[in-house]
Prior knowledge:
The complex is a heterodimer.
Chain A: H1 2-31, E1 33-39, H2 45-58, E2 62-68, H3 71-83, E3 90-93, H4 97-103, H5 123-129, E4 140-141, E5 143-152, H6 153-159, H7 167-179, E6 183-185, H8 192-202, H9 204-207, H10 209-218, H11 226-236, H12 251-259, E7 263-269, H13 272-279, E8 285-288, E9 301-305, E10 308-311, H14 318-328, H15 331-341, E11 344-345, H16 355-363, E12 367-369, H17 371-376, H18 383-396, H19 401-412
Parallel strand pairs in A: 1-2, 1-3, 6-7, 9-12
Antiparallel strand pairs in A: 3-10, 4-10, 5-7, 5-8, 5-9, 5-11
Helix pairs in contact in A: 8-18, 11-19, 18-19
Chain B: H1 2-37, E1 40-43, E2 46-50, H2 54-61, H3 65-99, H4 105-113, H5 120-130, H6 137-144, H7 161-173, H8 175-186, H9 190-198, H10 203-214, H11 216-231, H12 235-240, H13 254-262, H14 273-299
Antiparallel strand pairs in B: 1-2
Helix pairs in contact in B: 1-14, 2-3, 2-14, 3-7, 3-8, 3-11, 3-13, 4-8, 9-10, 11-14, 13-14
Amino acid sequence: MKKLMISIIVMLALIAPLAMAGGGAERAARDGVELDFWSWRVEDVAEYNELIRRFEAENPGIRVNFTPYQATEYNTVLSAAVQGGNAPDIIHLRAYGGLEQYAAPGFLMRLDDKLPLRNRFDEDTLRAVTSVSDGNIYGVPFASQTLVIYYNSRMYNELGLEIPETWDEFLSNLEVMKDAGITPLANGSAEGWTLEVMHGVISPNFYGANEFFDAIMSGEAKFTDEAYRRSLAKLLELRPYMPDGFTGVNYVGMQMGFINEMAGHFIGGSWEAAYFNSQNPDLEFGVFAGPVENRGDTRYVSSYADGSFGASATTRHPEEALKFLEFLASQETGQFFADELKLQSDIPGVTSDDPYLQRILELNENSTPYIQLVGFRYEQPTGSSLLQSGLEGMMAGTIDAAEVTRQVQRGIETWFTPGQ
Amino acid sequence: MNQRSLSRNAWIAFFVTPGLAIVAIFIILPLFMSLFNSLYFWRGMARLEFAGLENFRRIFFQYPFSERFFNALGNNVKWFTTTMLVQNTLGLLFGYFLSRRIPGSPVFQRVFFVPVLFSIVAVGFLWRLYLTPGTGLVNQFLLQAGLGSWARPWLGEQAIATYVIIAVNIWRWLGFPTLVFYAAINNVPQDCLEAAYLDGASETRVFFQVIVPLVIPAIMIITVLTMIGSLNVFEQIYTMTGLSGGPYYSTDTLGTLFYRTAFGGVDTGLPLIGVGSAIGVIIYLLTFASSALAILYFRGRETEL
């Protein structure tokens, strides 16, 4: 009995390291270097594999394994792997605070002394891949998202409406739709992040876009300032045009409303278009930027980098990993993302003949950082989480805009030092 | 003799060790790990220096944790009181009626228990669909029944959202206390009841003065389980109103607060494993203390025959 148990344990102890050590090293030695590349883009496996095929053709001797995980689980899987010393060589990272999470503890390879990134990308793009704790670059910019208002063009034609420029024109368009028996806005407030997006579309043109952003980062302005309070209060004017019981309408409900042409507008991000097209190919829609107060005012859209590519600090093949990152930063890759995945690539010189993507790029001529994500999604409580819950309360009428701004300011003051 | 007891002990150890190892690795170890983690400063996933009770201080005294913590605890209390009042009272009544062999009771016995078998996550997602304002079953039903004015965004109204989720949970779990009470009432000796009836006691009197005192152990078990369940409630909120406990923190509980502090989401920022672990420790202490109190309370009220 005892002997049997001992021999089982001894056998297990002998087998385990063999099983773990086997495979990988042997194969790599035979076929050259193998890089592991993790991502959350489960939807885009075919496209990424095609991109990798092109890289491998240009770089014989390097093989890249693309492994995507569900977006909702990705961060958990990745942080467990990184912490356990099993980080993949190439990592698809989020940007800003999402990058900081891995950059600050030293899990990522510093890139700005190895790749010519600093000259190639503009300041706003680089902010996404720069660690705030040491100012170094840890990622290759991937793609950006822009926050816009979608409108149903068929309804606009039937009702004789024109794309609004000012806030009043926008409200009057909503009113016309309401009178015609259509829900003017698909947006609900059951999920706070959709309210933050709504604020990202509407508010910058009232709080003073880039000027206010710079002032808040340097500490000259606060979220409790009148301009920001007023920009939040503007959202209240949209309540009459939101669906009945909008406090219970969640993201899926919003999408359904717009896709099934029950609602005429959808305030959201540039990522929605692909889903709208796939769910209802007959849906005719266009996009415009958040309206401004007076005719002729500069019309800003909020935009932000949606991710980046980095390399593990502990990769066993740093040279090959850098080669792949350089490829990911090339114009060829940017063009591939634009053509195949309809992504708004951050890489300079990328063009597109897709009318929707062109329109998004056109709106980006006046862009402003998506304020809470870009500046205040680093530590807890994030500006985003405070604003999202606060706006839920404001839209339900429980608290006013001033109280929302107080909560945001008070929360971020616990960790944010201006001017850094 | 000695040889025999040795081999006997070896066999006992052989059978007990696997279970003990699982309990030690997956229950006892994490418990002490979270206590350990709660006493340190963290930077993301990296553990830094010893922090003493700093993480606990932040929970109780630093904005916004202090407000979030007491708000969440308040909601856990709502979960406990509402579940006790509604679910367990109904469970006791249903258990009683089933034991009185009302017509169709074998069918009811099974029907009541069916939702208990459903996955908690599936129930949450389905009911979230049913409770959607425009197209959801619940509002559609009210409209058809001519009660359109009762229709509302059930999960979107701060005043009722928590109670709506509790109601869904009661629908799911009611079969369990019903079954426990049914079994307990069936165990009340028939001669006690007959003696009471012969003495001319009314049905109500028999229920309150004979049956209830004799099923105190079952009431104790259900109360303690309700306490544990109410302090640990998480999946129901996560699936129906999300991690942030919306709208405007009205459905937030210690479970959701713990999760988003310790692990975070896309927009909640750097995980605070120290503070999160501290919340976990507090949940554990609260659960332990309240269960112990409840057991002491009921022990004094048990009736021995």
